[in-house]
Amino acid sequence: MKKIVFLSVLIIFVSKLIFAGEIVVYNAADLVYAMEEIGKLYSEKYPKDKVKMVFGSSGKGYTQIVNGAPYDIVLSADMEYVEKLKQQGIAISEIKPYAIGRIVIWKRKDSKLNISKGIEIVSDTRIQKIAIANWEHAPYGVAAKECLEYYGYFDKIKSKLVLGENISHTAQFVQTGAADIGFLALSISLGKKLQEQGEFYLLPAECHNEIRQGYTILKNAAKDSEKYATAKRFYDFIQTPDVRKIFVKYGFVLPGEK
């Protein structure tokens, strides 16, 4: 009987070693390509940890989290959302900035539109549809709208705007031809597929408010010690030099740097 009890304890102990904590990370949609590389790098360093990635608009992610969605970490494209989560007691770690986003105008390579005209391209009479993320909940949509207002184009072309649920969805409009041009995150435009398919113009940073992006551990991670340990490892990993290099590769500006 003692042998059976000992064996049971041993099996439980070994199982814990084999199956490390599993976490779900909610990412702003502009991270879809960067996080693919970051996730792979993390898995190589911590092969026993399981990390599930979810992508969407920062505003919708915030709403889901407030309503009890079981996410353990959130990386938001809008620092204000994570600050609100901290105020509501849902964020349980220090809120840290991880990147500052940039916005571009993107077109397909088979389009005859002249992307080098920059923001002036929106006044081209050949353009019927312009893709933009929904500014009600997508930070890059807010920035795009601010740029259009800054240059005095918003009211002139608002009837041509088609709204994407997030920045990835917005990119699909232009990729498929449902829109002639689109306002996209630089990080999306630097993905291999979009680089092959199109061209972009980087809009001046001064035409919109800074796209400050931040992240935090959420209280759902504290439900289990193993889960929290994994969440803390991933949280710390985001600040490592190798991860910061990936952010730079995809056009993000690192906080405190030019």
UniProtKB/TrEMBL annotation:
InterPro entries, sorted: AvModA-like_subst-bd (IPR044084), ModA (IPR005950), ModA/WtpA (IPR050682)
Residues that coordinate or bind molybdate: 58, 167
Chain segments annotated as transmembrane: none
Keywords: Metal-binding, Molybdenum, Signal
One BP term from GO: molybdate ion transport
Gene3D superfamilies given in the database record: Periplasmic binding protein-like II
Molecular function GO terms recorded: metal ion binding; molybdate ion binding
Family, similarity comment: Belongs to the bacterial solute-binding protein ModA family.
PANTHER family xref list: MOLYBDATE-BINDING PERIPLASMIC PROTEIN, TUNGSTATE_MOLYBDATE_CHROMATE-BINDING PROTEIN MODA
Identification of the protein by name: Molybdenum ABC transporter, periplasmic molybdate-binding protein
Species the sequence originates in: Calditerrivibrio nitroreducens (strain DSM 19672 / NBRC 101217 / Yu37-1)
